[in-house]
């Protein structure tokens, strides 16, 4: 097998001679011996290509492939085969930061198309080139809201956002002088009526999520008006696929839209990588973090693309930058762009409606089952909470499902740490699930709880 270390012994000798050092040991002689690793590195001998492939196949064989009803931010949707093939092209996989537009038109156009699609879905004016995931997008949205209102120190966040989003926000504001205050929930949706009483001069903005962490669609009627009357901003986080059947952030008059594009062409892949999106009103454009690709014309008058508004980020003094982010999920954003280009709006609508129909079918079949309730009264899309009478019954059901190759749902309690969620399991159903799989799920639950 060809070694990956390019330097020969002769190469190393020439380099050592050029810097006036006789041996590698002499090169590192300034390092105290007490911190040097004196043993042989625990690395096996080199393997042939066939041996490496054999090891990978063995490891892959340890995976348990099952039917997934998992959700809570990572969903098992149908992904056309062409998405993987196109996004795996070497020109995309190995592309670097497109600082030189004259040699980066392909990547720049792909990012520009991603931004355009995000704006079309959210109904807002400007989107950036992506963020790491939906949770870090929430932290960036909080930073933008605080930067947009002088002397503000507080961001109000609904209890019904994803638990990871709450944790990221709390970590982000730790030690900054800013604080996160939670908005209580009512019947597993945000208590909108209580928000006006929480708004004061210190509040920079409000962050909510729909569908929320239980899967419920939230009603934000008059929320933007209350928030804006306080001089604050409104951020709404949404699964982008849901935006073809529910009101978009722009339609709710939000200032910032955030979320995660994992449902659009990105596999679950044991939790990542994913891709965060963020879009804003034009008035907030210069506070938008990360990169923005713009459209222009070249010296011959032809359409061209380039990074724009770069004075917002790492090209100016750190303390004056809106963000020091210089990385994004360009390959994941490209994958989402390819997926959307292939399925189109009609394909998104079909996937969203099919997911909704199948989720509601499963919920109806489970409703009469003893010892378990559908928790909540709000409408839901493709995800809903099953609330068991005891933790023991929930664990028995999930174990029985797993024994038949079904991942039955996500335990909410360990994610929120709240005793009230200890016996709640959030179940997600996508267009990928078949009626036979749904009926098998129902049969197992009924048999266990009979």
Task: Offer a quick outline of the entry.
Helices cover 35% and strands 15% of the residues. The chain is an alpha/beta fold and 450 residues long. It folds into two domains: 67-72 and 345-449, Aspartate Aminotransferase, domain 1, CATH 3.90.1150.10; 81-339, Aspartate Aminotransferase, domain 2.
The CATH architecture of the largest domain:
3-Layer(aba) Sandwich
Largest sheet: 7 strands, mixed
What is the end-to-end distance? 59 Å
Regarding quaternary structure, what we see is single chain
Structural class by sheet pairing and helices: alpha/beta
The gross shape turns out to be globular
Proportion of residues in helical segments: 25-40%
CATH topology of the largest domain: Aspartate Aminotransferase, domain 2
Whole-number mean pLDDT: 92
Helix-strand pattern, N to C? HHHEHHHEHEHEEEEHEEEEEHEEHEEHEH
Number of domains: 2
Regions with pLDDT < 50 over 5+ consecutive residues? none
**What's the helix count?**
13
CATH superfamily of the largest domain: Type I PLP-dependent aspartate aminotransferase-like (Major domain)
